[in-house]
Amino acid sequence: MKDLDLITNSLTDVEQQQIKSLQEWQNRMILSDCLPVLREMPSNLVDLIVTSPPYADSRKKTYGGISPNDYIDWFLPIAQELKRILKPEGTFILNIKEKVVKGERHNYVIKLILAMQQQGWLWTEEYIWHKKNCYPGKWPNRFRDAWERCLQFNRQKKFKMYQERVMVPMGDWANSRLKKLSDTDKIRDPSKVESGFGKNISNWLGRSMAYPTNVLHLATECNNKNHSAAFPKSLPSWFINLFTETSDLVLDPFVGSGTTCIAAKELGRHYLGIEIKKEYYDLAVSNIEKALFNIQAEKSAQKALNSSLPTEAEKVQSSAEQLPLSLEEDLPGKNSEKFLNLADIVDIEEY
Ligand SMILES: C[S@@+](CC[C@H](N)C(=O)[O-])C[C@H]1O[C@@H](n2cnc3c(N)ncnc32)[C@H](O)[C@@H]1O
Question: Which family does it belong to (predicted)?
Answer without folding.
Answer: Belongs to the N(4)/N(6)-methyltransferase family. N(4) subfamily.
